[in-house]
Amino acid sequence: MLGLMQNQPLLISSLIEFAARHHGDAEIVSRRVEGDIHRYTYRESARRSRQVAHALNALNLAFGDRVATLAWNGYRHFELYYGVSGSGRVLHTINPRLHPEQIAWIANHAEDQVLCFDLSFLPLVQAVHANCTTIKHYIALCDADKLPADSGIPNLQSYESWMGGQPGDYDWPTFDENTASSMCYTSGTTGHPKAALYSHRSSTLHAFAAALPDVMSISARDAILPVVPMFHVNAWGIPYSAALTGAKLVFPGPAMDGKSVYELIEAEKVTYAAGVPTVWQMLLTHMKPQGLRFSTLRRTVIGGSACPPAMIKAFNDDYGVEVLHAWGMTEMSPLGTLCTLKNKHDSLSDDEKMKIRLKQGRAIYGVDMKIVDSAGKELPWDGKTYGDLLVKGPWIIREYYKGTSDPLVDGWFPTGDVATIDADGYMQITDRSKDVIKSGGEWISSIDIENIAVAHPSVLMAACIGMVHPKWDERPIVAVVKKPGMDVSRDELLAFYEGKTAKWQIPDDVVFVDAIPLGATGKMLKTRLRELLKDYQLPEIQK
Ligand code: AMP
């Protein structure tokens, strides 16, 4: 017997229509590429998203055609999120930090028909357009009078003249909720990037889950600043969850330096911010010397790379801001786990609570996870045994777009991460499986080694890698960037490890570097660091 409830497909257009109807006057504020602040409401945003849908129809784009963006977080990008997906096309957000050759490869692989780009990416588009064989229309996200003359880019229009004259009402089409809505390529460090192709159903379910109190806890009372880019896994789904709840949205545009982010948080009374650790490092580095305080910020979600305990403590103890440590992947839409405490943890001491908060967190409903050994046998949840982390759920990838092999193992997606899970279901990432350091038959977590280094007051960033060793197979060394104007010697830093980790896990050496190479999504590029240190020799071991 089937239930007798209405069968409405879960479509992305319903989110913006809900926001326009029930939170029509809630604000969306954007720092524009031009540097000024733009503000309007969900009502106005929905109207312009419908205009975008009409403008795409006018280009004769077919259902399912891909529309690419090279854009910062801002209101026009937000309108494309809804206008493109809502009208049945697929939004392909391209990461502008990728190498130009990779961008052209991705655009051709996705068979993009349209490319919408912020003017800051004009030189990039000029460099790649001749190699993008499927793109027929180029739209610069600007007013008509800002459109560059003689750009050399064929069929270039300004966004405002392209969509501005279109009607503001539109009946969003109804279709199967499993239809593709957006796509994002992984920034794979080896081989070609691979694309996760999200659906209306997966994105809407993810938006519901992300808003839950134990997940990102997004509500109509919040003013949210997604510093996490809209070109990387849909800014963790915040553009969808914000519309679902009617939260005020504050977009930082291209200005992600500490000063700009701080000023925006204060000016727009942001209660809640989300981003990768490197962005928050810049913010804290800006605030500390000037003794700046937050007047409204209460929570921040930090993920994408392991959040160092020192950062969680600084936000919590120095600024009264709760850090929610999150873990996920492009292939997971991206949210998998978030670290919030349970009722039974209420009576714990602050130190005991902090030990839990440092983990990557527990699974969100909709995500199941397990750890397995090399034979695929499930390992115990004891908080000590580590193994390969596998996940499954309705917003986790089944296949890559145009993929040639099945990425799943018995229906589970192998994340490539190594983790422990404790008896309460809290997962902690030890490493990417390729970054784990194998020393004398034991494993050393590079994340643990990095976390200790960045707890030192003079250390800005640290990356731990394994170096080949004749006796132990590998030994860890740590590459360190010092904070400006601060100093620490190799021996002082190695002494700092004493008592904080087992003796055999203490790195063999410290290498001071000016910068640690970062990838297109702000993660440390250890492959590149290994290349840079290819001539490095471990100091002789004297025992
Ligand atoms: P991406 O698909 O580019 O977002 O990268 C996903 C990968 O980033 C994961 O598989 C993890 O290796 C890493 N990652 C994401 N969040 C965290 C976190 N909170 N702690 C440690 N690693 C993380």
Q: Can you tell me about this structure?
A:
The protein is of the alpha/beta class and about 550 residues long. It is about 30% helix and about 25% strand. The strands form four sheets. Strands 2-1-11-10-12-13-14-15-16-20-19-18-17 form a 13-stranded mixed β-sheet, sandwiched between helices. It starts with 12 loop residues before the first helix and ends in an 11-residue tail after the last helix. It binds adenosine monophosphate. Adenosine monophosphate binds near residues 186, 306 and 415.
What's the quick description here?
The chain is an alpha/beta fold and 543 residues long. Helices cover 28% and strands 24% of the residues.
How many strand units?
25
What oligomeric assembly is this protein in? single chain
Which fold name corresponds to the CATH topology of the largest domain? Rossmann fold
Strand order of the largest sheet: 2-1-11-10-12-13-14-15-16-20-19-18-17
Mean pLDDT: 95
List unreliable stretches of 5+ residues: none
Looking at the overall shape, the CATH architecture of the largest domain is: 3-Layer(aba) Sandwich
By CATH, the superfamily of the largest domain comes out as ANL, N-terminal domain
Q: What value does the Rg take, in angstroms?
A: 24 Å
Q: What class, by secondary structure content?
A: alpha/beta
The largest pleated sheet is described as:
13 strands, mixed
Treating each run of at least 4 consecutive H or I residues as one helix, how many helices? 16
Bound heterogens, unique: adenosine monophosphate
Strand proportion, as a percent range, falls in 15-25%
> Globular, elongated, flat, extended or rod-shaped: what is the shape?
globular
Q: What is the helix fraction of residues, given as a range?
A: 25-40%
- Report the top-level CATH class of the largest domain: Alpha Beta
